[in-house]
Amino acid sequence: MTGRLSATDGATGHSRPRLLLATFSQPPFRTPILFAAAASALSSLFDIHAALPLLCGNAGGHTPLTTIAASWHFLIATNPPGTVLQLWLIMLAAMMTPLIASPMAYVRASSLVARRWRAVAIFLSGYFGVWTLAAVPVLAIAFALRLLAGGVAAAALAACGIALLWSACPYQQAARNRGHRLRRIGLFGVQAVCDSFLFGARLGAWCLLSCWAWMLVPLFASRAHLLAMLAVTTILMAERLQGPGVPHWRIPLIPPAVLIRLTSRTQMARRKA
Amino acid sequence: MADQREDAWKLGAGWNDTLLWYAKAIIALKGRALTDRTSWRYLAAMHQFDQSLWMHQGIIDHTTALPAQADMDVAWNQCQHSSFYFLPWHRGYLARFEQIIAATIAALHGPTDWKLPYWNYLDATNPNARKIPQAFLEPYLPDGITRNPLEDVPRYGQKILAANPQLKIPDIDLTAMNVTKFTGIFSFGGSPTDFSNPDIGVRGQLENVPHGSVHILVGGAPPADVDFGYLSRFETAGLDPLFWLHHCNIDRLWAAWMTKPGVEMEVGQQWLDGPSDRAFAVPTVDGSGLETYTARDTLAGGKFYPDYDDLHAGTGVAALLGGARMADIVKGSPVMAEPTVIGANSETLTVGTAAVETAVRIAAQERTALVAAIGRTAPDAPADEQTFLQLENIRGKGVAGGLQVYVNSPAGADLPEDRFAGSAALFGLSSVSAVDGGHGGNGITLVFDISDLAKRLAAAGDFDPAHLRVKIVAAHSGGDADPITIDRVSVLRQ
């Protein structure tokens, strides 16, 4: 194709949401998003939340706090560790895979063509390995929140509040910044394996630190868990795409450009008044 | 004054109307509060802002009011580097700056058709081309009383551009103009990035030389110079009036490159209308709000498309015969093939003041193909086979410096010219290395085309397809106390 490139070339300008969707339908995002969609479908198919009555259901809703707290057996019986771990891993696969599309592409591009998939698999084992270990403290916080809040709805609200506060906090930005840092990936032998694993594990640790609060939210969503997972993934993806920045307190969720539009409208309204 | 951007050296020696009005407008802009979107400092902060550095340099103090946080989040710290947005972002930034200056000049009852001039430092037909235009060196305006804002900035480097051996920065040239692809890891314009803060970006060849070199050569950097000038840092570059003339020439080189037959221009939607996560923002000319733009706006027919008086002098692009002004360009595929890695060294390098050598091992399965491409059969090798050397994630606390790379150079201090692989002025090194900054802390990644060098080595019988020896010499302000690190040195092939 030849010709003079002009401002009207390549059809008309795309709106930003359409462009974003187009970006997600192409590498490096396409495969991780398809993988995440499959994990979400799996989670829905097995209705895993129904097997976790204390976290997601109403079984413990009217149980006195003292009774629940006194009975570790009650917790284990109503929330079997195997099921909890299964839920946790499926949730992670569905929610975190799209977030690490770029680092995965980096690992792939840094490796010999014949070893690319192996390198990505090792990277993922490091990343999800850290998150699997993190199941213990994160779920402990979830249980504690559930018990202290009394009901599922109250626990979900409290989780949202904690997550919003954490998103506003400069420490979360600092953790996110470190989740953007790349490291060398050796090309040969043991070094290639170790570097891919360590890169995944380190990224997993910083992701855990920046996302843990939001990961509590879908744990309390029973009927709408897919919706909750999608909403939280969207928030986490938006935060990731904002990229690194100087840590400071910020208004969470609302992009600065929208804030400017809002404040401009307020100023105009004041001027008119 | 013409309604086109012109060569600053051709506007008349010393003070001329264009530069005198530029100086007067800058004085007016400097008088505006930082919260004013058309103020000198606000416009510079759009490139990059660092509150503690600005306070340290006396640009602001504790009493200076800053704009609203949302305003700063959208409009400040936008500079695009190591990305295919480098050229379009700076074109829009430059265009709106020019309009704000022009509006200010008109308000001062000056001419109404003011255009930003360019510093055409590589114009071989002009013996003065490499000199900073004289008006930027005069301490006072022609009235002899008013301090000249074009000169009144920290500049510690050269007044006449040339190689700086102490900083390991070679002379500037137009090699980048010979690169045919706009996008890619080895390209004219930079690597593709989906979003505005790329985690993984590679500098385009034009961004490296002459762009980065001129920043450091003029701004200055220890150990060659006493300190860093404004031009040497992302955070202060826009505060030097010369920045705008330098970037005007870089922009003109892009415009000239677009007229070269056969160049492959980016036409992907991501580039035209991106980035996906945000729009680039400039103040409206009156500063009442912010206005968005994309790369599309910087192309022919777009609101920020510039008009230059000459696209040939100092660009390396020959004038077309028969009065034709714009050649057809190849509109590159939105998804361009990228080179793949075939070899790498085995350790992160630490480079202080001494030269460092590392062995790059080539994967066994790739050696035959490499030999076929550059080895004994080199003259018959396919012309489109290219070999690249990549320096990944160069990080350092030092603000800037220079770096040169040699392949298979002999033992000892000798660095023969025929083993030279590439160089870089490490413009923005500390900014892009800071973890808690806007650039992700991943440093600078450079790619050099070593196809011809590899062929020369093969012809000289000094090419082992299993290993390359890569020597790196650097000069930077970190010295041995804060050396630069290079995550990996790799060889790529396409």
State the CATH topology of the largest domain in chain B.
Answer: di-copper center containing domain from catechol oxidase
> Can you say what the CATH homologous superfamily of the largest domain in chain B is?
Di-copper center containing domain from catechol oxidase
- The count of helical stretches of chain B stands at 11
Structural class of chain B: alpha+beta
Instruction: Name the average pLDDT of chain A.
Output: 82
pLDDT below 50 for ≥5 consecutive residues: which ranges of chain A?
none
Largest sheet of chain B, described in full? 9 strands, antiparallel
Question: In this structure, how is the largest beta sheet of chain A organized?
Answer: none
- The helicity of chain A comes to 55-70%
What does this structure look like?
Chain A is mostly helical. Chain A is 68% helix and 1% strand. Chain A contains twelve helices and one strand; from the N terminus they run βαααααααααααα. Chain A has helices spanning 16-24, 30-45, 65-70, 72-78, 81-96, 101-109, 116-149, 152-168, 170-178, 189-216, 225-242, 256-272; one strand at residues 2-3. The model of chain A has no long low-confidence stretch (mean pLDDT 82). Chain B folds into two domains: 8-331, Di-copper center containing domain from catechol oxidase (di-copper center containing domain from catechol oxidase, Orthogonal Bundle); 340-493, Jelly Rolls, CATH 2.60.120. Chain B contains eleven helices and 13 strands. In chain B, the strands form three sheets. In chain B, strands 5, 6, 7, 8, 9, 10, 11, 12 and 13 form a nine-stranded antiparallel β-sheet that branches. Chain B has a two-stranded parallel ribbon with strand order 1-4. Chain B has a two-stranded antiparallel ribbon with strand order 2-3. In chain B, β2 and β3 (290-293) form a beta hairpin. In chain B, α5 packs across α7 (241-257). The longest helix of chain B is centred in the first third of the chain and has 22 residues, at 86-107. At the A-B interface, β1, α1, α6, α9 and α12 of A face α4, α8, β4, β5 and β13 of B. β1 (2-3) of chain A pairs antiparallel with β4 (329-331) of chain B, so a sheet runs across the interface.
